[in-house]
Design goal:
340 residues; Alpha-Beta Plaits; mainly alpha
Length: 340
Amino acid sequence: MVLAYTEYREKERRLVLALILALVIGLLEVVGGIISNSLALISDSIHVFMDVVAIAIALVAIRLALKPHTPTLTYGYHRLEVLAAFINTALAIALSIVLLYETYMRLLEPRVIDWGYMLIIAVAGLAVNLTMLRILKHGHGGLNEEQGQMQLQMQEQGQERYGVEGHDHGILIKSVSLHIVSDILGSLAVISAGAVIALTSLSIVDVIASVIIVGLILRLALQMLKRCIIILLEGAPEGIDITTIMDEIKSVNGVVDIHDVHVWSIAPSIPSLSAHVTIRNDADSKEVMRNINAILARYGIKHTTVQIEEEELIRPDRLGSRQVPGSDSQVVRQPRDLDE
């Protein structure tokens, strides 16, 4: 379902505001880290810039979702979101390696930490992160009558314009929120390190906090990398068990078999499925399709291509055999073969 224009703009407005705040605090942490000699603060600034990229990706995804598909780009521009996330992940991992090396150098040559600057900027960073989280989680009011009519028009035009079901940007907002929650933990680590340094003058605490933050960065980066690779390789989306789906479809009245099943993601929130379904000769194909679509809808799969085949066109020795998801069963007989 395509989101109303006003909903797009509301999400975009919140993301832009969060992006500006993240950029400001990221730059402050870089400058503050250099002035105070705090590696933990510099590490946290990189964590913040990961938030910046995540927010920018969400903004790009929302913008691109408004663009129609083309004869060349039949799925539209949704995959750009995945490519941008992949690049962001690669950069984050590279920067993490650099930070780990710098951490090792700090162990060999400790520096005096200006905990005053460190604490002030870390507290400011925590406040900004909490503000961003509130902005993203804050919903907007209900639609008035005019906006409701616009939403209905968008919904009617959506399938024709986009060629796929509308992009679910709720998952993008949640993804960005998780980034910010992780950054809040990083800010708390910096604040804790600054407080300990103020009390004990142990500069090694800054190094420990830096390692903790790098660990948070790598955790997010590896999760994102795994997700991007699965999508780019057109693997099954997380949380979708193809075997279970096949068993449920086989249980539909009139269905004899299902084969050549492929499930993949056009984008993180647009799962797709294609399959060949064999039905009995006396089965109502429209009723079978309604039941199959109801099953797939429970898994969030609304963009589907299902080829219905009548039982008499299938080789008897292949009926009921266990098909591996995604395998090419080659059981459909061509019309010219029926005369043999």
